[in-house]
């Protein structure tokens, strides 16, 4: 009788989803981007296990902040999620003095979706063909210490500063408006190196137009196993992957969070979905809610001192 009572209580807290109870996945970026593609692939597969429609709803603007604020204000009934990159929930709280949301108070972690690595990419602007050669070259003249990033205040921005700390050089970031113009300038020799998502540089690396010197993971990327990591090249302190994850509103019942976590974690690891994610440069992960919470805490601790030392503020 006690077990039956406990079961009924749990059901009362998080009633099963019915056919009319569609799950929304908010995406703070336009259709066709990475967040949108990840969300749609996962949503299509999660629908099978949840037994209800799973609808991706794009709320682009302010680098994902509009969707984050919408998640904060959504009912905690297990029917609204947000798919977002590490920038929204870890980096923004470190770089903005004023945010309309607090990820630690306003969101409930659900599941990691994918990991992605960053890469240091060299072009004709530097003679370096290896990381060791680049470090020696940049140390030979402080004027050589500029690196391009797709946006100021982005994960690549702070990863470049992490690199500078590790090699005891004051490197200067040059912000571009996206990864494509950055890569074009690396190829053209207008800037010696760039730091961006590994998958962006791989086609040009394999075509011989740029040289990816190292990647940011704890181990080599499955999409580019020929690229060594900073760790194996003697810099274990230069490490930091990016990721996308699913979040729910705070106070969503644990039973509902667990149900969604199971559905979306299994969705990204399903063989057909995993294969498609790998083809666009992502490592399918999936996780429990607790594992995502730990990952977020670890990355806050990793990036907070780097951001603080930089003096960067996104509010300026």
Can you tag this structure with a few keywords?
five-stranded mixed beta sheet; six-stranded mixed beta sheet; globular; disordered N terminus; 12 helices; 316 residues; alpha/beta; 11 strands
Strand and helix layout:
Layout lengths: L1 H12 L9 E5 L6 H17 L3 E5 L6 H9 L6 E6 H10 L7 H4 E10 L1 E5 L8 H9 L6 E4 L5 H12 L5 E4 L3 H10 L4 E5 H9 L4 E5 L26 E8 L4 H16 L1 H9 L3 E2 L4 H22 L6
Parallel strand pairs: 1-2, 1-3, 6-7, 6-8
Antiparallel strand pairs: 3-10, 4-10, 4-11, 5-8, 5-9
Helix pairs in contact: 2-10, 4-12, 7-12
What's the quick description here?
Helix 4 (86-95) packs parallel to helix 12 and helix 7 (155-166) packs across helix 12. The protein is an alpha/beta fold and 316 residues long.
- Biggest beta-sheet profile: 6 strands, mixed
Characterize the overall form: globular
Strand ordering within the main sheet: 2-1-3-10-4-11
End-to-end separation in angstroms reads 61 Å
Number of strands: 11
> Using only CA atoms, what is the Rg?
21 Å
How much is the average pLDDT? 93
Sequence of secondary-structure elements: HEHEHEHHEEHEHEHEHEEHHEH
| Oligomer classification | single chain
Structural class: alpha/beta
User: Helix count?
Assistant: 12
| Stretches with pLDDT under 50, minimum 5 residues | 1-15
Strand coverage percent:
15-25%
> Portion of residues in helices?
40-55%
């Amino acid at each position: 009788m006690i077990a039956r009572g406990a079961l009924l209580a749990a059901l009362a807290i998080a009633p099963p989803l019915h056919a009319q109870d569609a799950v929304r996945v908010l995406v703070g970026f336009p259709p066709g981007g990475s967040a949108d593609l990840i969300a749609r692939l996962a949503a299509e597969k999660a629908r099978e296990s949840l037994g209800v429609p799973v609808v991706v709803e794009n709320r682009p603007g302010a680098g994902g902040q509009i969707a984050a604020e919408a998640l904060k204000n959504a009912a905690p009934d297990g029917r609204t999620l947000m798919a977002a990159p590490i920038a929204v929930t870890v980096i923004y709280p470190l770089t903005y003095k004023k945010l309309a949301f607090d990820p630690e108070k306003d969101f409930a972690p659900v599941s990691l979706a994918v990991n992605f690595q960053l890469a240091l990419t060299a072009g004709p602007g530097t003679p370096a063909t290896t990381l060791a050669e680049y470090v020696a070259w940049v140390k030979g003249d402080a004027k050589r210490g500029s690196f391009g990033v797709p946006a100021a205040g982005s994960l690549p921005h702070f990863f470049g500063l992490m690199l500078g700390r590790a090699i005891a050089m004051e490197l200067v970031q040059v912000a571009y408006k996206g990864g494509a113009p950055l890569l074009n300038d690396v190829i053209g020799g207008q800037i010696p190196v760039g730091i961006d998502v590994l998958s962006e540089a791989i086609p040009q690396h394999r075509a011989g137009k740029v040289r990816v010197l190292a990647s940011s993971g704890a181990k080599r990327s499955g999409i580019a196993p020929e690229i060594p990591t900073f760790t194996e090249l003697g810099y274990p302190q230069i490490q930091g992957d990016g990721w996308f994850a699913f979040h729910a509103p705070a106070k969503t019942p644990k039973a509902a969070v667990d149900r969604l976590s199971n559905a979306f974690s299994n969705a990204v690891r399903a063989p057909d979905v995993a294969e498609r994610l790998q083809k666009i440069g992502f490592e399918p992960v999936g996780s429990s809610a607790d594992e995502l919470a730990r990952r977020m805490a670890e990355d806050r601790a990793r990036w907070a001192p780097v951001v603080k030392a930089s003096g960067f503020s996104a509010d300026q």
